[in-house]
Write a structure and sequence with these properties.
- There is one protein chain.
- The protein is mainly beta.
- It contains 1 helix and 4 strands; from the N terminus they run E-E-E-H-E.
- It has a domain of 46 residues.
- The chain is 7% helix and 27% strand.
- A 4-stranded mixed beta sheet has the order 3-1-2-4.
- The chain is globular and about 45 Å long.
Length: 71
């Protein structure tokens, strides 16, 4: 069964898991974890791309970035 985006009224499939740590004031975006967890949020690509951390927090994107094509 596919997991959907956690944003209200979004019907897209989740592709990213968002987690956060209050102690370190950090928000992490990572590839979708195999199983959901109550302390994380699953997002679609569109909502993950629009994620902005609270003021004073750091956003760490752990998703794979495709390597540039060789010319």
């Amino acid at each position: 069964m596919r997991r959907g985006c956690a944003r209200p009224a979004c019907g897209e499939a989740a592709t990213v898991t968002l987690s956060y740590g209050y102690g370190s004031a950090t928000v992490w975006l990572e590839p979708l974890t195999p199983e959901g967890h109550p302390m994380t949020h699953d997002l679609c690509d569109r909502h993950a791309a629009r994620t902005v951390p609270p003021r004073g927090w750091e956003l760490v994107d752990l998703r794979q970035v495709p390597a540039p094509l060789a010319s």
